[in-house]
């Protein structure tokens, strides 16, 4: 019956008039919403911080009471710094429990810092007193929990453009800044001459307002200029445009390269095997120094207790006080970048391969603690796979106990000791292989502190 009934039913058809069709097809454009994505800030760089928080080095807290609560002791995941959303951060360096930021601002301030200030490494910072409070003698703040301006002394006629930071670096308790107009400013502890001035016996640094100013002409002469500065634990090195290296500070392990093991407040040109070389980069996070010339050859001096600088294992020296050409890196090929930690070294060659050697967590797993020859880490550990076979490492760096590498996609991989959560992996366990750190941006530079990490990133969009 059903087929017969269906056949007898008339066909229903929906018809539209010409006017009705016009109404359906033509939309009211005034009712279509335009979508504009919300942009949090227009600055080129974003700053992410993680690691030990109680020193104030991360600069995340704006309230003293909150900074003293237990849950802020460590930040295990990369966290965006509010300061960078309001300021154009151009460079960053991490010392032992403190951080310095180079910025561009309309008010002319060019340098900010936060964290430990026990040796005035962040300048003389006075606590603001309310107008209705009784008058008190100003006291230098030992801890700064949020980035605060560091007032570099200016001479008459110097502009904010002149005082922009060209290069800066931080040691254990000192900070060195090179400005665009070629002046060097040193702050903090000078017990070993690391600030490039005479050592004063029993000098007090905790309430010091001294910011030592040096013209680059007094260091390298009128025909050269300082292009970068690199601080070790308690010594300082200056690299010039002509590839010369000048040093000062603690030399007990030969890290100043001056041919002795003494401390020196006088900034001195060093020679040795780099005398006729044009050095293009320096690296030192503690007391072992690596240098690279324009041809990709590696040189080293300083502490070599774990064979970092051994050319001859049978007659190895544990302290080397003059720059030496390294033969153990010859098989790596042309080296693009070097990094030196507390007891290990890193190198990146022109093929994008990462090599590590020395003693510590080298990236080869929990059973490899020491190797006297550079060994390379496999490219898949840094993001190379069948879907991204062109990915390679473009930059390396390290702190005293941990290492990091940035690949061509802007991803950061870290490994090593992780007692303070400074690997940014969400825990405090040591990491024995390179592991990707979750960052919401393309990483351009990383500052490796002894217990905290700072990353400069560009937004994806």
TrEMBL record:
InterPro entries: Mitochondrial_GEF_domain (IPR053035), RCC1-like_dom (IPR058923), RCC1/BLIP-II (IPR009091), Reg_chr_condens (IPR000408)
Keyword field: Repeat
SUPFAM superfamilies: RCC1/BLIP-II
One cellular component (GO) term of this entry: mitochondrial inner membrane
RCC repeat placement: 45-105, 109-181, 182-242, 296-351, 352-409, 410-459
Domain RCC1-like per the UniProt entry, residue ranges: 222-458
Annotated GO MF terms: guanyl-nucleotide exchange factor activity; rRNA binding
Keyword Repeat: yes
A biological process from GO: positive regulation of mitochondrial translation
Name of this protein: RCC1-like domain-containing protein
Source species: Drosophila willistoni (Fruit fly)
Classification lineage: Eukaryota, Metazoa, Ecdysozoa, Arthropoda, Hexapoda
Gene name, Swiss-Prot/TrEMBL: Dwil\GK24412
